[in-house]
Amino acid sequence: MKSCACIPLKLLIFGLFFLQSFNVLAQTPTDVRPDRFRDRVQIGGGLGVGFGSGYSDVTIAPSAIYNFNDYFSAGVGLNGTYVRYRNYNVSIAEYRSYLYGGSIIGLFHPIREIQISAELEQLRVNTRLQTHTSGIIRDNFWNTALFVGAGYRAQNVTIGLRYNVLHNPDKTVYADALTPFVRVYF
To answer: What is the CATH number of the domain that holds 90?
Structure first.
């Protein structure tokens, strides 16, 4: 009879352990995964094309950000631009410019609809100007910009203004220190 009493005790212990393990599994949702790196990354950027009479402007600017939480994001971007004017005025026969470089950006969202940004951009600028009187003039330089900005955010799109605190009107690719922007991230 001793052996008969041990079997039900072993079954009781095994059964309690088995039921307890179901209880532990039931407290972990099976449809929720822990955050993964790629779930916090958003890809986006800009694409610009402009054509006119003797004018061409093409820009490709991909970027990616990492969302640390609902308030802070940071990322990197690339920029490639080609600009060409022909017969701009009586003295300029042709102007060509190639711009390429990158940027790093930090984003802060104090509330869902507002985005505050800081962006450091470094562009290499290669220009070629052909005049009717002086011939060909080349100018190659680095353009550094530090933008601070704010915008209104709706879903994946942010529209706003940014100010280049390093703006130098004598050596820049931007006509003004204050520029509008549109950011799109998916």
So the answer is: 2.40.160.20
Tracing tokens 């509008």 back to the chain, one arrives at 180
Count of structural domains within the chain: 1
Closest of 135, 140, 50, 141 to residue 92, by C-alpha:
135
pLDDT digits (tens, 9 = 90+) for 132-182: 888 899 999 999 999 999 999 999 999 999 999 999 888 888 889 999 999
pTM value is: 0.74
Query: Across-strand partners of 159?
Result: 152, 182
Q: What is the DSSP string of 62-80?
A: EEEEEESSSSEEEEEEEEE
Q: Are 11 and 153 in contact (CB under 8 A)?
A: no
Residue 129 and residue 88 in contact, taking contact as beta carbons nearer than 8 Å: no
Cβ-proximal residues to 147 (8 Å cutoff; 6+ apart), any chain? 117, 118, 119, 120, 121, 162, 163, 164, 165, 179
Range of the domain at 124: 39-184
